Amino acid sequence: MATNGNEGGLKMIEELTTNAEQIQDEELGEILSRNAGTEYLRGFLHGQTEKQLFKKNVPIVTYEHLKPYIDRIANGETSDILLAEPVTGFFLSSGTSGGQPKLIPVSAEYHKKGALVGTFAQSPMMRHFGDINQAGKRMELMFARPEIETPSGLKAASVSTSIYNESKFRTNLPKLYTSPIETIFCPDPNQGLYCQLLFGLIQRDEVVKVGSLFASTVLRGIKFLENHWQELCYDIKTGRLSDWITDSGCRNAASLIMKPNPEQADLIENICNCKSWEGIIRKLWTKARYIGCICTGAMRQYTTELEFYCRGLPLVSAFYACSETFCGLNLEPLCKPCDISYTLLPNMAYFEFLPVKNERDESFEMKSNDEDTELVDLVNVKVGQCYELVVSTCAGLYRYKVGDVLMVSGFYNNAPQFQFVERKNVILSVDQEKTSETDLFKAVTEAKALLDPLGFILTEYTSYVDTSSAPGHYVLFWEIKGKEGKHCKELDPKIMVECCSRMEESLHYTYKIYRKRNIIAALEIRVVKQGSFEALMDYFVSKGTSLSQYKKPSCIKSEEALKILDSRVIGKYFSPKPPL
To answer: What are the entry keywords (predicted)?
Structure first.
């Protein structure tokens, strides 16, 4: 299935990963030679560009350390505060990943690297699935959010919105995608989603890929379809768009595409009007080769339900990137979501790694600060060790902690491969214990196994610490769905109590000690009615989060978000005794 372009991309990957150490040194050398004279670096390097001086003098920082410099540029001061090259704009990070959106500087060099990614990023995919650009169209759910203009006049937008605004994307859109640009930029996400699903169904015979940026968005689309398929079929049958779609752009786009097609509507209706929606994606889009979306990290919890809907189609998480930089590729796109590793590309940024200690099974004391730990270079990481990712980029970030924890799973040539473990500091804590996103995921995975044999699926969960009474305790919100028409009211309460116990048994040593000492009260699961997590997503979208960038928080911090879930609770269950 390989093409000449594909072979060129694979060859480039081979060269990059084989010469990883040399390319990393060149990357850092270029960053320092360009920017050593900036106000920020001058204070640490005094105009020097040596690697060892950089490692010795330049501090490891978070966004909060760089925010004053970035804000000055956003407010109109010259870019050479942080980088020699002019800042051309800013990327907005996801507003639901660790708090408020961050302004990440963007430059021409940054965009040049982004264009370079396009030359080889699809190569591993093409090796397995062929060139889907030639085979048909992609039904991808895409949602832009408004740009923000900073006082300097520079625009700030999410990474995805910036891509949707590119002339190349807009030119290729009608040929490669089922969604017109008007539906992507529709200010009402529900109207945009309805229209994107409608046009994806109308063009279903051409669709060779289904997906979105995140697994959660694909699932939202399928659940939306589950609630609106009859209306969608009526629109396809009559060739008329539903009256509640009032956005002029969506209506204009529909007028160019829609015409009465009762035969197609009947086919779709017969597929959707069934007892079980298992494999519905494959049934509706019969030529689809895979589902493309990020399904690692916080998206892991969606894979079970997504696999139910796409039964037999591969779930492919093709790349690992963040607002700060593109990081790496999944060279084995056919592997299971739980086995995905990303190979870091040494020409994207200068990568360093802060070792992360895991002492959960050895001590229940609070972990000490590891800020003074020496950073490890890309090629010197050790297999099996966890690290926090630290990047230095061409766009003014130096020794910047991204906040992602990665585990080294192996090497491809001389470049390490990583599995995404969790976001740093996404934790529950009543006292001195620290429960991470990964701890929580493992415990939930153990507990939800009790539901599967009974015909129920855990579709969504999140958590928070309830300290309204002493001692405080962990609260899990669970949304449960029955298979083949089962209702969650049929679920035996004893099973839910057992789920609470199973979760506590699966949590770390420190938690168990604190429970036995009554420093932490019994874990609680609150079951919420269907659609509760969609309401949560709607809340965050109404606050300015892009639907395609939305990542459900593993831990609820917002009082308003908490009220949304609490108002939809249909059952409360507690662990009956401390874990052994």
So the answer is: Ligase
**Residue 187, Cβ density class (10 Å: 0-12 exposed, 13-18 middle, ≥19 buried):** exposed
* H or E element in which residue 303 lies: helix 303-309
**Residues across the chain:** 580
7 and 131 Cβ atoms separated by less than 8 Å:
no
What is the spatial order of strands in the sheet that 473-482 belongs to? Answer: 456-466, 473-482, 524-528, 569-574
- Note if the pTM is more than 0.90: no
**Beta strands at 456-466 and 473-482: parallel, antiparallel or unpaired:** antiparallel
At position 518, the amino acid (one-letter code) is: N
Nearest to 99 by CA among 542, 545, 533, 565: 545
* Residues 6 or more apart in contact with residue 359 via CB below 8 angstroms: 367
Confirm if 485 and 275 have CB atoms less than 8 A apart.
yes
Structural tokens at position 97: 């990943």
Sign of the dihedral through C-alpha 252, 181, 222, 544? negative
- Give the DSSP per-residue string, 139-171: EEE------EE-TTS-EEEEHHHHHHHSHHHHH
- The answer to whether 414 and 380 have CB atoms below 8 angstroms apart is no
| Residue among 428, 442, 352, 339 at smallest CA distance from 397 | 352
pLDDT average per 10 residues of sequence, the chain (580 residues): 65 93 96 95 93 95 93 95 95 58 89 80 86 92 90 92 91 95 93 96 97 89 94 97 96 95 97 92 96 87 87 91 90 92 95 79 38 84 95 95 93 96 79 81 94 90 88 93 73 93 91 86 95 90 77 86 95 92
Give the separation between CA 124 and CA 341, rounded to whole angstroms.
13
Number of helical (H) and strand (E) elements in the chain, helices listed first = 22, 22
Cis peptide before 471 (omega within 30 of 0): yes
What element of type H or E holds 230?
helix 215-238
How far from chain centre, in Å, is Cα 151?
30
Amino acid at the residue 355 = P
Look at residue 554 and give its three-state secondary structure. coil
For residue 155, what pLDDT is reported?
Answer: 93
